[in-house]
Design goal:
This protein is of the alpha/beta class and 271 residues long. Helices cover 49% and strands 14% of the residues.
Length: 271
């Protein structure tokens, strides 16, 4: 990471601050080398106390960094780039956008020729170094893509995909964090129903979910192979699974993901 001296994140909301904290936790950069920019100064006070450089001036933030991450709301992107897009230096800057629905072409129409633009879709688990981050860029921006890949590899797992898959990646990986958290909450509620207190039920459900995921990551097997290991004829596990499927568990998850993917495509609107 010696090629990165500083990073600016414009839009220090939930995902922006998660990225910043994850980069610090990973050792990629110290907090003082990360500038967080946001319109309202009062929302930067706690971040400044953590050691981050903060500003309400996007131009100042861009001028002080090599790599700029845009983490604003989709509806704010055009106004932002109309104001500061011309300040990106092709010889110096790499722009990474985590703005849902905004294409590389949408970004580049506000930038000087030669400015590298990369789309990234991390999730909020980046704050603890466990993000699944999907990346895409035009062929001419391979160096910028490689740089972004290096950065996000420090805070989780990365996957380079075709740009047309980015909306799907947003639904599966970014929105998906909430889907899996809801599944854990449901499991903990089931634990309460069968006799555990709320704190213990949540701890048990969360660790069981973590363990199940770790099995897949470590062994590289299909989920059904691992399911087969814990299902026995006329057993408790298969009875529970069949009841969940009868109630629409898998179909609900699938429909949730496809619905989110459809919505992502409509989030960014050109004025």
């Amino acid at each position: 990471m010696s090629t990165i001296r500083s990073i600016t994140i414009i839009g220090a909301g939930n995902i922006g601050t998660a990225i910043a904290r994850g980069l610090v936790k990973s050792g990629c950069l110290s907090a003082g080398k990360i500038t967080l920019a946001r319109r309202h100064a009062d929302k930067l006070v706690d971040l400044a106390a953590e050691g981050f450089a903060t500003t309400t001036d996007n131009s100042v933030a861009i001028s002080g960094s090599d790599l700029v991450v845009l983490a604003v709301e989709p509806g704010q992107l055009d106004e932002l780039l109309q104001a500061v897009g011309g300040e990106f230096d092709p010889a110096r800057h790499t722009l990474i956008s985590v703005v849902s629905g905004a294409t590389i072409a949408d970004l580049k129409r506000h930038l000087k020729d030669g400015v590298a633009a990369v789309r990234a879709m991390p999730n909020t688990a980046i704050a603890v170094g466990e993000s699944m981050t999907c990346l895409s860029a035009a062929a001419c921006d391979a160096a910028g893509l490689n740089l972004a890949d290096q950065v996000f590899q420090t805070v989780g797992i990365t996957l380079v995909i075709d740009e047309e898959q980015m909306s799907a990646a947003t639904a599966l990986c970014a929105c998906g964090t909430a889907f899996f958290l809801r599944a854990i909450r449901a499991a903990s509620q089931g634990g309460i129903e069968i006799g555990f207190n709320a704190r213990d039920a949540l701890a048990m459900a969360a660790q069981t979910a973590k363990g199940a995921s770790s099995l897949l990551m470590a062994r590289g097997l299909h989920p059904e192979r691992e399911i087969d290991r814990v299902t026995t004829p006329r057993g408790a596990t298969i009875s529970g699974l069949n009841e969940m499927e009868h109630q629409g568990f898998s179909s609900a998850m699938i429909r949730g993901i496809t619905t989110s993917a459809d919505k992502v495509d409509r989030l960014y609107r050109k004025k």
